[in-house]
Structures are given as C-alpha cells and as structure tokens.
Amino acid sequence: MTSCLSLFSFLVLLATIATAQDAASPGAAGAATSQPATQPHRPQTKPTTKPTTKPTTGAQESEDANEESAADRGVPNAPPAPDGSAFLWAKYQLAREYFRDGKYQAAYRLTDSILVLQPDVAFRDDVLRLRRKAEARHLGLSIVEVRFEAAALPEGEAPKFPAERIQGHVIIENVTAAPLQVGRGRGEQPIGQARCRITEFYSDGTAWSREETQNLKVSKAFTLAPGDSRSLEVSFEVPTGMYPPCLQRIVVKGVLRPRELRIGDRDPIGRTIPWQQYVHLGLPEELRAVRQSPYKEIKMGLLGRDGPRLVAATHVFLEYQDDREPWRKGTDDVVRLFLDALTPEQEPLHPLVFRLLEVVTGARCEPSVRSWKLWAIRWKAKSSP
To answer: Model pTM?
Structure first.
C-alpha cells in the first residue's frame, strides 16, 4: 500500500513539472503566434516603385537593351523589390533614372556603391548589368567618341524611298587631352563591329525587320592626337519587304572593340565602347509632313481614316517624343485619341487602332472594343492621383 502511494505521488510530481514547463514555453497560450509588445512591427508589403516602362516600336521590341531608343535607353527591366533591401533598391532605381537622363558617370558610381555596401545583394545581376552599361556609355563620352555619319546626297537630289543602300563613315574621335592608341601592333586586326537594322512599317500596323552585321578591320594600329579623328567607310545593303511600306526605320549602331585601347601611358581600357546610335526615318513624299507635327497628323489620320498616315505619324511620334514634350503627357494624349476612336459601331479602322494601342502602351488585349474599354478603366484608375 505504501509503495502504491509513493508511485502515485511521483507521477503527480512529474505532471506538475511538465505543466510548468509548458506554461513557460513560447507555444503556451498562443505565444507562438503573437509578438512581444516591444518588438517593432515589420511590414509584409514590398516597396512600391513607379512604373518606368515606355512604349516600344516593333523594331525596338526585338532589339531589347542593345539599342538606345527614345523609348528606353538600354535600361534593364527591374525585378520586384526584394525584402530587406528597400534602401539599396531605392538607390538602384535612382541609378536607373540617372542612366535614362544620360548621367552615366553618376549611374556607374551609384551602382558601384551598392555592390560595395552589399556584394551579394538579391538583385546583383541587374546592378552589375547597369553598372557595365553605364561605364561603357561614360567611356564613350569622356574618352573616345564613335559615331556614324551618313554620306551626303548630291545637291538637288531627294532621298530615295524606300532606301536601297546606306553609306557613310564611322568616325573615331579622341576626346581626351592625351594621345589615344587604338589597336596593337602591325598587320590587319579587328577594331569592332557595325550593325544595321532595317524595319518597315505597313499600313495595317504590321512590321518587317532585318539586321545586317559587319566586322570592322584596320590595316594596323593607329594613334590619335587629342581632338583628332579617323574615319572608316561603311556600306550596307537595305533589303526591302514584299509590300510598299509607309515608314522605313534604319538604325546604324555598333561597338568599338580593338585589341588594345590606351590613353597615354595608362593601363589599357578593357571595355567595349558602344557607338552613338544613328537613326534614319524614311517616309514617302506624301507623308513627309508627318515629321513636323506627328501628334496633329495622328488626329488627321483618325479623322480621315487614313491608315498609312496614322501608322507613320504614331511611330514618328514615339521616336521623337523626348525631343518635343514630356514623355508621359504626350503618350497619354495619344492613348486617349485612340481610345476615343473606338466607337461602339464596328469600324474598318478598329483593327489598326488595336495594334497601335499595343505599340504605344505595351499592353496586350483581345482585339475588341470591349477589352480595350475595360483596360482603359484600369489605366485611368492608375493614372489618377
């Protein structure tokens, strides 16, 4: 009897100890799901960023970041802001703005400081890409300037449309105060690459494009004194599509990539330097007035149901809008024009308006008035303050 009581007392003692331990543990009384009163609250939402996408033409979509266009000067697409990196993410967005504004040195320094502060930042690949592009653009402005200059037409001769050939010279100019060595040693050697992209836009809103690449070579290395330049002749055949276009866009660009690039007695520069981009917009004689006021010509194209004029004016507007008026305001005005043209009654011009809306906004919708009107409601809600 005494042994049974002792065993019962021992079991009661174990149960009491277990109960006390459970009460002191973080999981007791729902403590596992609650935070101490002194712990700061951590927001679960990610920092929001203002959208920076700009409309692209059919030629620009396939060229991606290789081409510096009015739509987007080669800035990589931004990933979502990762948790715990709000400060560095804001600095990365600022570097993107510097790059778009042409402040390449500031963009390079800012991206470099991000990598110094946190080398393994979650969006490291994007920072590295932007830093590399900013450094190359800065070198192209502060050390050596490379540009393409088209050959002048004979006096009194009008430009041919569509163009069949584009000829000109690649100008390599030393913009430093010291001698610039381009290449190394004697003998023929590569100096870079030239690319010509031709895009034709048709009256139904479709486009056709093709790109040609040439490797540039020199007979031997050369040195440029401060302010001096050297030219290399370049010629491209311009293929044409099956149908007569209403606009022809020719882009000549390239990179300077010699065996060695050295300023004075300094160490060689181990970077590929992009050219300044050359863009030519060819128009038939009856549409050349589009260059003067593309926004007005868009209105006239809609009122007159003139497909060729509408296509040409829209793409010319997108090409030159940064030089004419603030980007956002100008694009919004064009979007409103297109949306107002989508009347409930079926119109022959509607399919073309659908395609041009996709070009201007970058959105993808079902080709119907109802789908674009629903998109317009969401767009206006986002645009309103």
So the answer is: 0.65
